[in-house]
Amino acid sequence: MKNILISGASIAGTATAYWLRRHGFKVTVVERAPAIREGGYKVDIRGAALRVVERMGLLDAVRARSTGMRVATYYDGSGRPVAAMDADLFGGRTDDDVEIMRGDLNALLYDLTRDDVEYVFGDSITGIADDGTVTFEHLGPRRFDLVVGADGAHSNTRRIAFGEESRFARYLGCYISICTVPNTLGLDRAEAVHPAVGRTANVYSTRQDTAAKALFMWSSPPLGHDHRDVAQQKELLARAMDGAGWQVPALLEAVRGAGDLYFDSVTQIHMDRWSTGRVVLVGDAGYCASPASGQGTSLALVGAYVLAGELATGGGTEEYERVLRPFVTANQALGPANLKGMVIGSRVALWFQLTMLRLMPRLPGRERMVERIAGPIARAANAVSLRDYPAAEDVAACRE
Fold first, then answer.
1. Which ranges of the sequence are coiled-coil (predicted)?
2. Assigned domain for 207 exists
């Protein structure tokens, strides 16, 4: 039985842990945080990723925890509603796509694996030797047959095995920040959006959530911020949104007291290969598509399924890359395209977008508009054929 270490108890990490254990591997997960991360923002599960979730037996549980969002309303600077659209169309969802809070999904995956996988919290990898010996900040050295980097776009595992992040990061020209704020707008499964030139503010509250999430996106040159300096991040956000109308001043005041701020550049990770020696990357660590793609979670789920399946059936990391590469390429292409509609570059473009949104319910070509919004996402979400990898118990049963 191969002994595999996963760095990162992210969605990619916990999903990979599940599939590796199902294929009979011994799995350890090391996570820098003291526990599984709760909360977070809403994420979408689409296309092939839905089939992966179904094969995990989690589809009903995921649907039961869906956000239940109903509507997205656009507001101008004075607070006047100027357009509204169905929440699924706003999120580019079609057919059976599901939206769920990131923390809820990760909790489901963790519960599915916690009894069969060794989780080590509050620790991190410091080195990986050619013979598979891994050193940690706190644990003593341990040897593994393979190390899976599932530790996000700023992957420590990738840095150790492949080099500095700057070699692989492709900045898309914007920043994003999200945190929990009081639901002073009284939102009920609804989003309130204020687009302005070069920046957008969005507040939403999901089903069974008494609070709200405030999301900000804005155009900017690279800021060179410290990923762990939350006070600096809050100040940079306040500067970026200074002077914006609508509810933005009140939201920025609420951000000052937020304890769960997410702040990062909208960046993709592009690599020629995702494996070297005894290390392989999965999810954002190897092929981050950025939040603008709306496909990071789906890439993580599908990547975990394919990686574990190919390791179990002899294809290895080379076949993992061959199968997954076109899927990653299609979904990464969504990021720059979607970003143009998320952060508007000029007053003319902003006026045109709001006008089209306002008129869309009455336009004869509405179906074409829906296809324009959701069609590319749906095609990218299904741009992979999933093999039926036999689980270890199934292989054993066949041999008997």
1. none
2. yes
Residue pair 211/205 in contact by the 8 Å Cβ criterion: yes
Q: Are residues 114 and 14 located together in one domain of the fold?
A: yes
Sequential DSSP letters for 169-194: EEEEEEEEEEEEEE-TT--SSEEEEE
Q: Is 78 inside a domain boundary?
A: no
In this structure, the number of other CB atoms found within 10 A of the CB of residue 165 comes to: 15
Residue 400: which residues within 8 A CB-CB, separation 6 or more? none
* Residue range of the domain that includes 190: 170-266+339-362
Taking only the tens place, the pLDDT of each residue in 272-328 is 999 999 999 999 999 999 999 999 999 999 999 999 999 999 999 999 999 999 999
Those residues with Cβ within 8 angstroms of residue 192's Cβ, 6 or more apart along the chain or in another chain:
72, 73, 75, 185, 202, 203, 204, 247
Question: Do 139 and 56 reside in the same domain of the chain?
Answer: yes
Asked whether the beta carbons of 261 and 137 are under 8 A apart, the reply is no
Kindly report, residue by residue over 33-72, the tens digit of the pLDDT: 999 988 788 999 999 999 999 999 999 999 999 999 999 9
In this predicted model, what pLDDT tens digit does every residue of 123-149 receive, in sequence order?
999 999 999 999 999 999 999 999 999
Q: Which regions of 105-158 does DSSP assign to beta strands (E)?
A: 118-121, 125-128, 133-136, 142-143, 146-149
Domain total for the chain?
Answer: 2
Residue 364 burial (CB count, 10 A): 6
CB atoms within 10 A of CB 34: 9
> Which burial class, exposed, middle or buried, applies to 281 when counting CB atoms under 10 A from its CB (0-12, 13-18, 19+)?
buried
d(CA 350, CA 81): 15
Q: What is the pTM of this model?
A: 0.93
Domain identity same for 250 and 273: no
Half-sphere exposure of 132 (CA within 13 A, CB side): 13
CB 301 within 8 A of CB 44: no
